[in-house]
Design brief:
single chain; about 250 residues; mainly beta; 8-stranded antiparallel β-sheet; 5-stranded antiparallel β-sheet; about 10% helix; globular
Length: about 250
C-alpha cells in the first residue's frame, strides 16, 4: 500500500505540472526568402491555461541580424525604427538602467557600445555576423571573434536543446526572446504573460517543422516587450512596447 501511495503521488505530481502543446498555428510569409511569421497558441495539458506566441523564423542564408541602438533622445518605438531602417522584422533588445545605459555587452555594427558584464542574470549573448547568428554562454564568448552585432542578456531558457532548471516559475509577464538551432535557422519571439519556467517548457516542444531549438535566450521582457513583422504585401503586424527602450534586435535582408 505504501508503494502504491507513493506511485499515486508521483502520478498526481506529474499531472499537476502538465505539459505544453501547440493547439493552433497560423503562418504567413514575408517578402523575403526564408522568413515567416508564426502565431502559435499553446495549452497546458493539466491546467488548461493558454499562452500565445508570435514568432518570426528565418535562415541566415537569406537574412541577417542587426542591433539598432538608440543612445540618445528622442527614442523611437519599435514600429518607427523598423520602418526607418527598412527591416523585415524585429523585437526589443537587452536590459538598460534608468538612464538608458545598456546593462551587459552591446555591439552595434562591429563597435563595442557597452562592455561584457558578469552578473547572475546575464548568462548568454546573442551574436551575429554576416554569415551566422548564435547564442553563446558568457563563458564561451571570445573578444577575438569577428562579430557585427551582439547583445548580452538572460537568463538562458533553453540550453543544448534542453529545458533550463531553476527558472522562476510563478511570476507571469510578457516575454521576448531569441532562439537558434544548430544549423542556420534563427527565431525571434514574443510570448503573452507566462513564467520563465513555462516558456522554457514551451520552447522545447516541436512547434515548427524541422526547427529544434538548440539555445534560447530571454531578452528584456515585461513593459519593454515588443514584436514587429513586415508581411509579404507590405503591411505590418506590430505589438508595441509599453515604454521607450534602448535598443532593438532586427532582421534585415542580406
Amino acid at each position: 500500500m505504501q508503494v502504491s501511495a507513493a506511485l499515486l503521488c508521483l502520478v498526481l505530481a506529474a499531472a499537476a505540472r502538465g505539459e505544453w502543446k501547440a493547439v493552433s498555428t497560423q503562418i504567413e510569409p514575408s517578402a523575403a526568402g526564408k522568413l515567416e511569421h508564426r502565431y502559435v497558441v499553446f495549452e497546458d495539458s493539466a491546467s488548461g491555461d493558454r499562452a500565445s506566441m508570435e514568432l518570426v523564423l528565418f535562415s541566415t542564408k537569406s537574412c541577417r541580424l542587426r542591433i539598432i541602438d538608440q543612445p540618445s533622445e528622442p527614442r523611437g518605438d519599435l514600429d518607427e525604427m523598423m520602418r526607418r531602417e527598412k527591416c523585415l522584422a524585429g523585437v526589443n533588445g537587452g536590459y538598460f538602467d534608468p538612464n538608458y545605459k545598456p546593462i551587459g555587452l552591446l555591439i552595434v555594427d562591429g563597435k563595442i557600445i557597452a562592455p561584457l558584464q558578469r552578473a547572475r542574470l546575464l548568462t548568454g549573448i546573442l551574436t551575429a555576423s554576416s554569415s551566422k547568428a548564435q547564442i553563446l554562454r558568457v563563458s564561451e564568448f571570445s573578444r577575438g571573434q569577428k562579430i557585427d552585432a551582439a547583445v548580452e542578456c538572460g537568463p538562458m531558457i533553453v540550453d543544448l536543446g534542453n529545458r533550463v532548471a531553476g527558472l522562476e516559475a510563478t511570476r507571469q509577464a510578457r516575454r521576448t526572446f531569441a532562439a537558434a538551432e544548430k544549423a542556420d535557422r534563427v527565431a525571434l519571439g514574443f510570448c503573452s504573460d507566462i513564467s520563465l519556467a513555462d516558456l522554457s517548457k514551451i520552447l522545447t516542444t516541436q512547434f515548427a517543422p524541422n526547427f529544434k531549438i538548440h539555445r534560447a535566450l530571454n531578452l528584456d521582457g515585461g513593459s519593454s516587450s515588443a514584436f514587429w513583422f513586415k508581411r509579404g504585401d507590405g503591411s505590418v503586424f506590430s505589438i508595441p512596447e509599453q515604454k521607450a527602450v534602448r535598443d532593438f534586435v532586427a532582421i534585415v535582408p542580406k
